[in-house]
Amino acid sequence: MEQLGLLAVLSVAFWLSLFTMTLALFRQNIKPHLKSIIISSLIMTQISIITQTKFLILGLVVLQPVFTVLCFCLFFRLRLIHAFLVSLVVYLFVIISEMLLHAVVSRFHIETFILLAQKSALLPAGVLSILNFVVTVILLKLRVGFTFISFNRKHKVNIRFAISLFVILASGLITMMLIISSLYLWETQTLLAYGMGTILLIGLIHYLYVKELSDI
C-alpha cells in the first residue's frame, strides 16, 4: 500500500512535469493552462496506477497513449491530428530518456537493462519528473520551441502538412508500440527497437525544425 501511494505521488509529479514541458516545447503560456494540466495529470495518474497494477502491456501500449491524446484534445483544445503529433513527440522523448536512464543504471548490461525496464516504475517516474522540469526551465529561459502547432481549433490546417503528419504519426505510433512491446515480447531485441525509436525521434525533430523555419 505504501509503495502504491508513492507511485501515485510520483505519477502526479511525472504527468504534471510532462504536460508543463509540452506546453513549453510548443511555446505556450503555461499559466492559462494550469487547470488543464492539473486535471489531465490526475486522470493520467489513475491510468498509470491501473497500468502498473492491472494491465501492464495493454496500459503502456494502448491506454496511456490514447488517454494522453484525449487529454490534449479535451482539455488543451488541440485538434486531433495535432494532439497525436504532440503526444508522439513527448512519448518518444520519454522513451529515449528512460532508455538512457536504464542504460546508465544497468551500466549497459543487457540483462539488467531489460529487468529494470520491465520492473522499475518508481525510479523512472522520479528521475524523469526532475528531467522534465529542468527541460521546461531551459526552454522557458532560452525562449525556444516550436510555434506551428496551434492550440486554437479555429486556426486553419495546411492540407499538405496534415498528410505528411499522418504518415509520420502512423510510422511513429507503430514504432512506439514496437519499442514498448519489445521489453516484454522480444527482450534481447529491445535495443534494436530503441535504436529505431531514436532514429525516428531525430528524423521527426529535424522535420519539425525544417517546417518551423519554412514558416518564419
Any overview of this molecule?
With 216 residues, the protein is mainly alpha-helical. The chain has helices spanning 2-25, 34-53, 56-74, 80-105, 110-119, 122-142, 159-185, 190-215. Helix 1 (2-25) packs parallel to helix 6, helix 3 (56-74) crosses helix 4 (80-105) and helix 4 packs across helix 8.
Number of strands: 0
Classify the helix fraction into a percent range. over 70%
Q: Describe the biggest sheet?
A: none
- N-to-C CA distance: 52 Å
Briefly note the structural class of the backbone. mainly alpha
| Poorly predicted sequence stretches spanning 5 or more consecutive residues | none
Q: Determine the number of helices (DSSP H or I, runs of at least 4 residues).
A: 8
List SSEs in N-to-C order.
Answer: HHHHHHHH
Overall 3D shape = globular
Radius of gyration, whole Å? 17 Å
Average of per-residue pLDDT values? 78
Portion in beta strands? under 5%
